[in-house]
């Protein structure tokens, strides 16, 4: 599924909510005291697209990267700080795959490297919410995160010469995003979109410093987009 279809679904959902009175004139106020809780919990489901940002040692053909859409699931813990600020912890599981294509390698098998990841993601985010209008309240959020890649192959002695692409087990990131809280009859629904930017080089080089897969890479950092649907 491409992300443009996800956006269409999101826009259609918001339009449906609008027709139902959430954005209409004089709506019935739902869960008026929900945000006044000191601590509350929720969960999220969503989609993600992971990419890499490459920096190279010498000029040459860029590695072609074909990301696929993965899925997300996790929990949300929210600590109210003030009327407009909250601190959030959103641990989750993110499954994804990135296909790296090396244009300078002739063999079709060696040219492709499938980088699969089963990530445990631990973001700590500061959320700023605007003034609530009826049953809607837009917000911005940003913070830092750490990611544990359960499929990193970091401890494997084999490398790309044995068809094994290796990355580091832990990575650090910063994140920024936005969304909207919608106060429905029975729960609060919060669609959001967030960008994730890796801060450290994640690549483990092959044993041969002249490896065609890793020899010319100066750094390889995660870039990702999360679309999450949170239920409180």
Automatic annotation (TrEMBL):
InterPro entries: Beta-barrel_OMP_2
Database matches in Pfam families: OMP_b-brl_2
Top-level taxonomic group: Bacteria
Domain (Outer membrane protein beta-barrel) ranges: 37-202
Protein name: PorT family protein
């Amino acid at each position: 599924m491409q992300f443009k279809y996800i956006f269409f679904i999101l826009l259609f959902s918001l339009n449906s909510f609008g027709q139902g009175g959430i954005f209409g004139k004089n709506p019935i106020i739902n869960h008026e005291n929900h945000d006044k809780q000191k601590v509350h919990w929720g969960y999220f489901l969503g989609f993600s697209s992971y990419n890499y940002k490459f920096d190279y040692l010498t000029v040459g053909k860029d590695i072609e990267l074909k990301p696929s859409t993965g899925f997300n699931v996790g929990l949300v813990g929210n600590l109210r700080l003030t009327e407009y600020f909250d601190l959030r912890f959103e641990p989750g599981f993110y499954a994804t795959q990135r296909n790296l294509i090396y244009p300078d390698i002739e063999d079709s098998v060696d040219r492709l490297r499938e980088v699969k990841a089963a990530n445990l993601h631990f973001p700590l985010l500061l959320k700023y919410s605007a003034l609530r209008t009826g049953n809607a309240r837009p917000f911005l959020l940003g913070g830092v995160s750490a990611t544990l890649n359960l499929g990193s192959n970091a401890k494997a002695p084999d490398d790309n010469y044995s068809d094994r692409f290796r990355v580091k087990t832990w990575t650090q990131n910063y994140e920024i995003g936005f969304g909207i809280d919608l106060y429905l009859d029975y729960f609060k629904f919060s669609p959001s979109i967030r960008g994730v930017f890796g801060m450290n080089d994640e690549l483990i080089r092959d044993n041969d410093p002249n490896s065609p897969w890793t020899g010319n890479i100066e750094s390889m950092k995660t870039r990702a987009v999360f679309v999450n649907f949170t239920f409180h």
